[in-house]
Amino acid sequence: MPKIYDYLGIVFFFYSNEHEPLHVHAKYGDYETIFIIVFNDGILNKIETRNNKGFEPLPPAKFKEAKRFVEKYAVEIAMKWHQVFILRQKIVCEEIKKKI
């Protein structure tokens, strides 16, 4: 389970057996939401969300923070997806303590 970001207690990660579409999991305590990142011609088109089976979705305040984070870091998340699942590289989790 590659952790890619820790942002104000919200952990963003990929499961080791991920699949398309490009997405990232956001976990806060026992809560988890999936953010699907959609690009068209290299430009962020939209971010969709869905619940992960077996988990309660992020509480509203944490969901808002997580969505804002994914919107700001979508390109970086996509690059990390490529590093992990295409290039098979290990990545280091970045801790971000400053609110965006």
| Spatial gap, N to C terminus | 25 Å
Helical proportion?
25-40%
Our estimate of the beta-strand percent is: 35-45%
Strand order of the largest sheet: 5-4-3-2-1-6
Helix segment tally: 1
Radius of gyration: 13 Å
What do you see in this structure?
By secondary structure, the protein is α+β, with helices and mostly antiparallel strands. The protein has one domain. Helices cover 27% and strands 37% of the residues. It has 1 helix and 6 strands. Strand 3 and strand 4 form a beta hairpin.
What are the main properties of this structure?
100 residues, alpha+beta, 6-stranded mixed sheet, 1 helix, globular
List the helices and strands and how they pair.
Elements: E1 3-7, E2 10-13, E3 23-28, E4 31-40, E5 43-51, H1 60-86, E6 94-96
Parallel strand pairs: 1-6
Antiparallel strand pairs: 1-2, 2-3, 3-4, 4-5
Task: Summarize the structure in short.
With 100 residues, the chain is an alpha+beta fold. The chain has one helix at 60-86, and strands at 3-7, 10-13, 23-28, 31-40, 43-51, 94-96. The protein has one domain (3-96).
